[in-house]
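Subject: sequence -> structure tokens, single chain

Hey, anyone have a minute? Need the predicted structure for the following. Not urgent.
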Amino acid sequence: MNTFLELDHVTKTFGSEGIFGGGAVTVAVDDVSLSINEDESSITTVAGESGSGKTTLARLLLGSHVPTAGKMLYRGKDFTRLTRRERRNFRREIQPIFQDPFESYNPFYKVDHVLDEPIKNFRLTSSASEKQQMIEDALEMVGLVPEETLGRFPHQLSGGQRQRVMVARALLLKPRVILADEPVSMVDASLRATILDSIRRLNRDLGISVIYITHDLTTAYQISDNIMVMYRGTVVEAGTVDSVIPDPQHPYTKLLIESIPQPDPKNRWGSEPPQQNWDTSDLQIAGCRFADRCPAVMDRCHDTRPAQYLINDHQLTACLLHEEKGEMPNTDITTTFQTEKETIKAVPAK
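Reply:
Had a minute. Here:
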């Protein structure tokens, strides 16, 4: 299989400890690897609470952040060594959809502007009639009526319509990958299904891979093939959604799933101890970063960083609870396990 985009042992840190030991270092993404195949499309969810590193990972994939360590490869080539033409192709082939659609618009321009610009910048058409047809086709693909959408200002559309226009904008460029960062968190619940269905149809009908960034495991289970669960910059569990969601192996993943509201008011949501070490630099935490919140914590968890253990062919987790029964990947190589549509790379902890 041809790898379109790959993160190879990528780490991204912010801040500095300083000459005299002052300041703090935040390890937003810590030794993460992920590959997106060009031949087979899929939807992969990156899940976790606020501060887990999801958005930083998204910005690394978009090329707007440079890794502190590790490499990002675009079609097998180091991203930092791309030519001007290759960078232009990259910007066309991976398109973002952001959390707040209103911030993507200039309120002084009609929504037509965000659809005209990519066609103009990438010289996608040679005539006005061809451009108009391309825009109308894209709008219809995401369930919008061109006559009811074009010619309006952003405030004249609903939040769901604005977000679907942004999906249509991404679609115009015929991307290989769409990176959707919390695309439905700021729209009404009644519109979420419509937007997610539009994204899923782009994957199914057009073969576009999707990286779906979210904290909502319910929607992740509905539309995704694979899932990576992150906590404080590290991947704590990964695999197919059919393996991870019904049978989570990491205590953090279990707490995320237990936090999903149940349709029975008599059932109380699970409680958990609050994070204790937020003021501690990430570099000063020797063991598991989830140890101070983990209901199954052991003494070793505070000073031993867990490796990633293969639970089965479609699931891995980074937890010392699975040290004996899980299979530890070879520390000399990057272990891959093949899901139905996507290869996820599991990297042993250092």
